[in-house]
Design a protein that fits this description.
The complex is a heteropentamer. In chain B, 48% of the residues lie in helices and 4% in strands. By secondary structure, chain B is mainly alpha-helical. Chain B has a 4-stranded parallel beta sheet. In chain B, strands 5-6-7 form a 3-stranded parallel beta sheet, with helices on both faces. In chain C, strands 1-2 form a two-stranded antiparallel ribbon. The longest helix of chain D has 16 residues, at 2-17. Chain D has 2 domains: 1-40, no CATH class; 47-256, Alpha-Beta Plaits (2-Layer Sandwich). Classes of the chains: A mainly alpha, B mainly alpha, C mainly alpha, D alpha+beta, E mainly alpha. Chains in contact: A-B, A-D, B-E, C-D, C-E. Strand 2 of chain A pairs antiparallel with strand 2 of chain D. The complex binds protoporphyrin IX containing FE (HEM) (2 copies) and iron/sulfur cluster (6 copies). One iron/sulfur cluster binds next to helix 6 of chain D.
Chain lengths: 409, 516, 135, 258, 245
């Protein structure tokens, strides 16, 4: 078998350092925002006792599930033996680690007491999904690093498949776990449903792949490495498939809510009366994150154009963030169903007087923190591909597809 | 396959780090220089009385003269990063060929005589007196280092074993234990002007022959002048370029490039050698004496620029040391760096679109490129760091259609030595040369298998000679190694030359944009 | 800057505090110097999880005994510059976040309240505390 | 460092200023009880032999009364958290800690109005405890659900999980504290069933006492395991239920009249 | 002054003198030995600023080691970074008042201590397990690791198991500045810790620990790659030239 050659990303130092400088400053700004929040307390954010998780969590959860999805390509390559995806394995692993780190960092910096991180690492409540997630996340990091090692080090090659299979299950557990963070919240109408977990899995596939494609196309273009049409087509139709699946699950989700749990109130609120959240749902989640990319990816001509594919990826990411806004913030804004059959006239604690949703307006600091997390992920990726061999030298058709003749014809 | 009375390593699809086999190469020693070869360099002809004391004194002197030696002997923490980086270790499995193992041969003596810990607790820190056995080890293993500096790339302190083996050779020379191959050659340079001992008239003859050949080939009369006073450029090139294959094809190429550039140039019979073996024996004095010949030739021929031909360590001495050893060069044209590499010269022309190529003339070859170690790790081309990697590749891409790099770990600054550098290119070290070439040839073999590579281009006379000799041991052909300027020579379209077909022009256009 | 030579055991006890009149801490001073954090942390877990309010190693107890008073018998926060906890902790660069949550003066400690009442100039209780505040 | 000391100083001055003229008699009742001869601080760990609980009779809860809320605020020093400068008023109102609140309900069918004081329900199977990653949310053996604020990292997952919205996150610096109720920025807190009283042998809560003092007697506090407790008597006397019974959390706080 | 305090006071005076004089001596030796030729390992920076950056990357990230061997790099870097944090934390014993930055960083030093020991164990493991490294290892290399591990373990034991009186300890060291010997707490762990530290300080200038200053003097790393632009001649080589003229 021909071996795939990987090379460090070798764009011109000037441009590389420029890129790092930009990313680092975004990271630094995010860090300052976090420091400011830590020092002042959360009153400077838009979060309240009613909406307790907000913009930072939108970014964090998005990054975390995207991390799990990014690993998908490595699994397809090793576990399912699809040779064409093999060269993508390393980048896929790197992105998984990077996105997860970015997401976790945001999560940690948004804690009320980030200075007690060590407490979080030494005290565990094993009944808590969240605590399990801490293990799932660290385990994931270690596993992916091991997985990368098996891919890169020849001595490890033979463990690649078992580690890959293990990583795949772990990854599914991780997304399921992340989904379950919400899924087990019996308190709230929006969450308490089993379908949230598989929906998160399928979302992770789409978001991870979209980010992967963007990074792949950017790094390859900057350095002039070739990506063949075959692999591009495969990846973009895979993305289309995932996006379609998200739409399907969205539908099922609302149907179970209506028929299964009889939560008409919640469903009609999100679909019709939720104001900004309704807009995020229809415009962001369904249109921008679903229908538009589908239109592009299955379009007879646009689907062949890389710029359009990149645009579709961007749309999927935007749609993903919108979906998170609806799922995370929207569901908290919607009042808790404490007194069925009653209307709340007054309350000393914003219990949804007259059925009103809790208000939330993101503060700049929250957005900066979230974007900082994204920048951390990209920074790790940029450094990773530069110092280690993550990127295949070429994804040209004849390299990727073993049936095409070698260069010397 | 060439016959060998030792085991030729088997090539593997992947690089392996072999387990240690102590002593496998302790028998390997180059011939010792006799009186006649020692004397011209100012060294005693045989082991002197009281050599131990004298060697230690010499070591002390060198410690005071070379910061590198002092710092390197102190700083090593035995981290092990360098242990699997030397091609001689990889090819021979002898632990004394691990860079740090090699250094330790000197370090143990250094510790014994120059450090407090070694004086007080020699056992504890592994210190040892300079005994006859130690001297033998030195002679053996310091002549198993091609001074390629690969180890220094990976050492956290940049410890360069080459500096240490140079110092060791200098110390040994000073007590009368010299190596025949190097010292004989240096003697020839002093007497005749070049390593091969080719006298001026012979050179003239050869060059006239070349002019005829090129004319027959191309129908254009390209000149190969020597000792022409007033020429603009002095070309200093390794003497192998004058006759041996594939070197001479490179020289033909230089001539064609100069011709197309329209500059006047000349060789010199006084400085008819680019290589400077003074480097190998670590002798500043000898290196300087050899380098001075170039200054003398430049003054005598009243040239304005100096250009060096393809040779690795020659380029190191030229690029890194010439200014120090034979400068200042204030009498030359200040618009050009002194000296220039022929690749820089050619590349500049390509960039300016002043050369036209028909790449298809090299279509019978699929190429890879061997970064010669002294070029890669001890010098530079062009204005920017790393130009020494990019410029030759740019030239290949401009002149050939099929080019593939070898594995990343074995090229650029991580390149493997050909196995013949550092004054070891002698038949009495054949076993070492064959085994030491293994890592490079293994990587070559892999691109041959996977990318269909047929030829490897190099820009060093030692590499070319070494590969010509060693490739057959590995079942390859000696002509699979080519000069870089041979590719230029093949592809270049000389002004006024009959062109084959109309496509050429278009091709040439394409090239210049690509190279720009 | 600490006058180096004077720093012996017991020398951080602030004049005017209850401790200043006593010969011994809740454990031998040598022990307290080395291990007070262990004691109070242990007490902390006992109190919070087990509801044990024994005062021997209680933080409220430390504050009550070690807090100093100004000339009007008002307690000076124990983490204020130069006060008992602060003096050492600044010297050894150990930051304490305890008093972000815990009262640094014995406000509603009954013993302290009784003592203030005896002096007749005490703020008296929680209600008084509250009045100046707005919700 | 200086900022903090200044703040403490002004705090003390205010504290002293407000003091004049107030007699020892208005000391909060709990404070006296600590030192009363019968009550001794607990010296052994609580056990599951008791389970603290509460019955709230919404029928007795009066319109316009807020005595329980005020008493809780005072007992636990909830008022010592000044609004930070520049904070938006409405948002700040929703960022402040509330341990007990009054909710006024109207039945959609009958139009009947009910006043429901809501506080932590001290669930037997508390979701807040299940989700807490560090175990900072915990249930004491005697059924009191607490946050160990030494290990709380402020992740707010418990707030997401609590079906009664009983918890508050401390969004800003707390200026003053009471010795009996330490609290500070960055942690989550909720009603403690006035645990400092319980541990000092005073079986009462500030809210129940206040309600009684107002003459409404809407809140009965006591031991659910003790068949003879006032609480159990009251429970037997009246139909009562748990809020969101469907979740099967077996709350310690029961309601009559809804 | 008790015997113990007196002994440790003299030990530390001795250790400091040996450390400082030894290092000055070595530094002078390195600085005075000329580098007659330009031998930077290329590709090398072509400007001074570039060299500073290269050095910084070497010192902070161990760049070359990273290229050379990932395992050694991981353990080596963990060890040194841990050591660095520990050093910062230790400054609180020697500075009064303690700068705010040190006070802030100080708690991380504990994790630094654990990292340091972990890294050392990894490094030691490779000395035993990897045949190539075993070959180049001498007794002193093992002893050096042992010394550092013991310092780390005794320190961590003080942090976690048997606390010592930090205030008295700090007093002791601050007192030494003005030649005043204050009582040193006589906890065995502390005495072991301090004794080993003094030993480390004494052997520092005579051992491979010289790699720390050595790194800055290594010509293959600290030279600017500009031999064609700027003539570089060592004094002794210059004398050679003078003689000829
Ligand atoms: C500028 C500061 C320093 C730099 C850049 C540096 C760098 C390095 C590097 C690159 C290594 C080789 C990798 C390894 O084995 O870990 C090493 C080894 C080592 N360093 Fe340092 N070091 C510094 C300071 C120190 C100091 C202050 C100490 C001692 C207290 C120290 C103790 C050691 C030891 C003991 C080893 C050898 C580990 C072994 O035996 O395996 N280093 N150092
Ligand atoms: C005169 C110099 C030194 C003094 C006075 C000193 C003193 C101490 C003390 C008192 C502790 C306990 C800290 C606590 O209980 O919180 C400690 C811990 C420690 N020491 Fe040292 N030490 C010195 C030098 C060193 C050196 C040179 C090293 C490393 C090579 C070192 C490594 C450690 C480590 C790893 C710990 C445990 C982690 C920590 O608490 O910081 N010490 N040292
Ligand atoms: S300089 Fe080259 S040949 Fe010599 S020890 Fe280093 S790697 Fe080996
Ligand atoms: S890499 Fe350098 S420090 Fe490490 S063993 Fe080799 S020579 Fe010594
Ligand atoms: S004090 Fe009693 S009556 Fe008043 S609001 Fe509270 S529960 Fe109702
Ligand atoms: S009411 Fe909420 S906070 Fe209280 S125990 Fe139940 S779930 Fe936890
Ligand atoms: S906020 Fe505190 S108590 Fe609540 S879940 Fe997080 S750690 Fe636990
Ligand atoms: S029981 Fe205590 S803490 Fe809980 S609401 Fe009543 S007064 Fe507040």
């Amino acid at each position: 078998m021909k071996r795939i050659i990987y090379r460090e990303w070798r764009i011109e130092p000037g441009r590389y350092w420029g890129l790092l400088a930009i990313l680092s400053s975004v990271v630094a700004i995010g860090g300052l925002a976090a420091l400011y929040t830590f020092q002042q307390g959360h009153w400077i954010t838009g979060m309240t006792n009613s909406v307790v998780w907000a913009t930072p969590h939108v970014f964090a959860v998005f990054l975390i599930i995207a991390a799990s999805g990014a690993l998908n390509l490595a699994t397809i390559g090793t576990v399912f033996g699809k040779g064409a995806y093999k060269p993508l394995g390393r980048l896929s692993g790197l992105l998984a680690v990077a996105l997860l780190m970015g997401g976790l960092l945001v999560l940690v910096l948004d804690l009320g007491r980030p200075d007690r991180l060590i407490v979080a690492m030494t005290h565990y409540n094993f009944r808590s999904i969240f605590a399990w997630n801490i293990f799932l996340y660290t385990g994931f990091l270690i596993l992916v690093i091991a997985y990368l090692w098996t891919m890169a080090e020849r001595k490890g090659n033979r463990y690649m498949k078992p580690v890959g299979v293990f990583a795949m299950f772990w990854r599914l557990a991780l997304t399921t776990g992340t989904g379950s963070i919400f899924g087990f919240l019996v308190a709230r109408d929006a969450y308490e449903t089993a379908i949230l977990a598989p929906m998160f899995v399928i979302m992770s596939f789409a978001y991870g792949l979209a980010i992967f494609l963007l990074v792949l196309m950017f790094t390859f273009r900057e350095e002039g490495r070739p990506i063949g049409g075959t692999i591009m087509r495969r990846l973009s139709s895979l993305l289309g498939l995932f996006v379609a699946a998200i739409l399907y699950f969205t539908l099922v989700y609302h149907l179970t809510k209506v028929y299964g749990a009889q939560h008409y109130g919640l469903v009609s609120w999100i679909l019709r009366d939720g104001g900004a959240y309704t807009a995020f749902f229809w415009f962001g989640w369904v249109l921008v994150g679903g229908l538009m990319p589908l239109g592009i990816l299955f379009h007879p001509t646009l689907a062949g154009d890389r710029r359009w594919i990149a645009a579709a990826c961007g749309l999927v990411v935007t749609g993903g963030l919108s979906a998170m806004v609806v799922i995370i913030i929207g569901s908290q804004a919607y009042p808790m169903p404490m007194f069925p059959g009653h209307t709340i006239l007054e309350s000393g604690f914003f219990d949804g007087v007259g059925g009103a949703a809790a208000s939330y307006r993101p503060a700049v600091s929250e957005i900066l923190l979230g974007v900082g997390g994204v920048a951390v992920a990209l920074l790790i990726t940029a450094v990773g591909v530069r110092v280690l061999q993550f990127l295949p030298e070429s994804l040209a058709d004849e390299i990727v597809d073993p049936h095409v003749q070698t260069a010397r014809a | 396959m060439a016959k060998a009375d030792f085991q030729v390593p088997e090539l593997q699809p992947y690089a392996e780090i072999p387990p240690l086999q102590p002593g496998t190469m302790s028998h390997s020693k180059p011939f010792v220089a006799k009186q006649e070869f020692q004397a011209p360099l100012g060294y005693p002809g045989e082991l002197v009385d009281g050599w131990e004391r004298k060697a230690i004194d010499k070591m002390g002197e060198l410690l005071g003269k070379y910061r590198s030696l002092r710092v390197y002997l102190d700083s090593c923490v035995k981290c092990g990063s360098c242990t699997d980086k030397c091609h001689y270790y990889l090819g021979t499995k002898d632990p004394n060929n691990m860079p740090v193992g090699r250094q330790d041969l000197m370090r143990k003596v250094y510790r014994r005589h120059f450090t407090l810990a070694g004086r007080l607790f020699p056992k504890l820190v592994g210190a040892s007196d300079f005994t006859r056995e130690v001297l033998d080890e030195w002679y053996s293993y310091f002549h198993q280092c091609s001074q390629c500096r690969r180890c220094s790339v990976f050492c956290p302190y940049g410890i360069d074993t080459a500096e240490i083996s140079m110092a060791a050779r200098e110390i040994m020379d000073s007590i009368g234990v010299g190596q025949k191959y190097c010292n004989e050659i240096i003697g020839k340079v002093y007497k005749i002007g070049n390593n091969l001992g080719l006298p001026g008239p012979a050179l003239k003859d050869t060059l006239e022959g070349l002019e005829e050949d090129v004319f027959d080939d191309t129908g254009v009369s390209v000149r190969y002048p020597i000792d022409e006073e007033g020429a603009e450029i002095l070309l200093v090139t390794p003497s192998a370029d004058f006759f041996a294959e594939p070197h001479v094809d490179g020289l033909i190429g230089y001539g064609k490039v100069f011709h197309e550039a329209g500059v006047s140039w000349t060789l010199s019979s006084h400085a008819s050698e680019a290589a400077n073996f003074g480097l190998f024996i670590g002798s500043y004095d000898n290196m300087r004496r050899i380098a001075q010949r170039i200054r003398e030739a430049a003054i005598q021929l009243k040239v304005k620029r100096i250009v060096f031909g393809e040779c690795g360590h020659a380029w190191r001495v030229a690029y890194s040391f010439l200014n120090t050893l034979a400068g200042p060069w204030d009498f030359l044209d200040p618009r050009y760096p002194v000296p220039q590499h022929i690749c820089e010269f050619t590349h500049d022309l390509i960039r300016q679109g002043r050369l036209r190529f028909d790449k298809s003339r090299n279509d019978d070859m699929v190429l890879t490129f061997h970064d010669s170690c002294n070029v890669a790790r001890a010098s530079r081309m062009g204005e920017r760091a790393g130009g020494q990697f990019e410029i030759p590749r740019a030239i290949i891409r401009a002149t050939c259609n099929h080019f593939f790099d070898m594995e990343e770990e074995t090229i650029r600054d991580r390149t493997f030595c050909c196995g013949g550098g550092g004054g070891l290119l002698t038949d009495d070290l054949m076993e070492l040369r064959v085994k030491g070439a293994m890592p490079r040839i293994q990587a070559l073999n892999n691109v041959i298998k996977e990318k269909g590579v047929t030829h490897m281009a190099a820009i060093c006379a030692i590499c070319k000679s070494q590969f010509t000799k060693v490739l057959p041991y590995y079942g390859m052909e000696m002509d699979q190694i080519v000069s870089l300027h041979q590719l230029v020579s093949n592809a270049i379209i000389l002004t006024g030359q009959e062109t084959g077909d109309e496509e050429d022009d278009e091709e040439a256009e394409g090239v210049s944009t690509e190279a720009a | 800057v600490m006058p180096v030579a004077q720093v012996g055991a017991g020398s951080f006890v602030v004049p005017g505090s209850e401790a200043a009149h006593l010969g011994q801490c809740v454990e031998p001073t040598e022990q307290m110097r080395r291990n007070h954090m262990v004691f109070i942390r242990h007490q902390r877990d006992d109190t919070v999880h087990g509801g044990i309010r024994g005062t021997k190693h209680s933080l409220a107890g430390c504050v009550a005994c070690h807090v100093a008073y100004d000339d009007r018998h008002r307690p000076i926060p124990i983490m204020a510059d130069g006060q008992f906890c602060h003096a050492c902790h600044a010297y050894t660069a150990v930051t304490l976040d305890c008093f972000q949550c815990h009262a640094a003066v014995p406000i509603d400690d009954p013993a302290a309240l009784a003592r203030y009442a005896a002096h007749g100039d005490h703020p008296v209780g929680v209600d008084g505390y509250r009045e100046g505040e707005e919700r | 460092m200086n900022d903090r000391d200044d703040a403490t100083d002004t705090g003390r001055r205010r504290f002293l200023g407000a003091a004049t003229g107030v007699a020892a008699a208005v000391l909060a009742p709990g404070v006296f009880l600590y030192t009363s001869a019968t009550a001794t601080p607990r010296s052994e760990a609580v056990t599951s032999a008791t389970r603290w609980g509460m019955l709230i009779d919404t029928a007795k809860c009066a319109d316009g009364c807020s005595a329980c809320v005020d008493a809780c605020d005072r007992e636990n020093g909830l008022t010592f958290q000044p609004q930070p400068e520049g904070a938006d008023d409405t948002r700040w109102a929703n960022q402040q800690a509330v341990w007990i609140r009054k909710v006024r309900l109207q039945d959609d069918l009958t139009g009947r109005i009910t006043n429901v004081p809501m506080l932590c329900q001290h669930c037997e199977h508390p979701p807040c405890v299940d989700v807490c990653p560090t175990g900072a949310s915990f249930k004491r053996a005697d059924g009191v659900v607490l946050v160990d604020r030494h290990t709380c990292i402020g992740c707010r997952y418990c707030m997401m999980a609590c079906p009664y919205k009983a918890r508050s996150f401390i969004h800003a610096k707390v200026e003053h504290q009471l010795t009996r109720a330490p609290r500070g920025k960055g942690c989550v807190e909720s009603c403690t069933f006035c645990v400092h009283r319980l541990d000092h042998g005073d079986i009462s809560t500030a809210c129940a006492d206040a309600c009684a003092a107002e003459g409404h007697q809407a809140i009965v506090f006591g031991d659910l395991r003790d068949p003879d407790s006032d609480l159990n008597k009251a429970l037997r006397a009246q139909p009562n239920r748990q809020i969101r019974e469907d979740l099967k959390l077996n709350t310690g706080v029961r309601y009559a009249g809804i | 002054m008790s015997f113990l305090s007196g002994f440790y006071a003299s030990l530390f005076y001795l250790a400091v003198v040996v450390l400082i004089l030894g290092l000055i001596n070595k530094t002078i030796q390195y600085a005075r030995a000329p580098a007659p030729l330009k031998i930077p390992t290329t590709p090398a920076p072509t400007t001074r600023a570039g060299v500073v950056l290269r050095m910084a990357r070497e010192v902070v990230f161990f760049e070359s080691l990273f290229k050379g061997n990932k395992w050694i790099w991981i353990f080596g870097w963990i060890f040194h970074f841990g050591l660095f944090l520990v050093t910062l934390r230790h400054l609180r014993y020697f500075l009064d008042p303690v700068p705010a930055l040190i006070a802030f960083i100080q708690p991380f030093g504990i994790y630094g201590g654990m990292a340091m020991v972990l890294g050392l164990v990894g490094l030691w493991a490779r000395r035993v397990l990897v045949d190539r490294v075993r070959f180049i290892t001498s007794a002193s290399d093992h002893l050096m690791l042992l010394l550092l591990v013991m310092i780390g373990v005794s320190g961590l034991s003080m942090t976690y198991v048997v606390h010592t009186d930090i205030v008295a300890l700090k007093n002791f060291f601050i007192g030494l500045y003005s030649f005043q010997v204050n009582p040193l707490p006589s906890d065995p762990l502390l005495l072991i810790h301090l004794f080993l530290v003094a030993l480390l300080m004494i052997i520092f200038p005579y051992s491979k620990l010289l790699h720390a200053p050595g790194m800055f003097f290594s010509p293959s790393r600290n030279q600017v790659d500009n031999p064609r632009e700027k003539r570089h001649v060592a004094p002794w080589a210059d004398r050679l030239e003078q003689r000829e003229l």
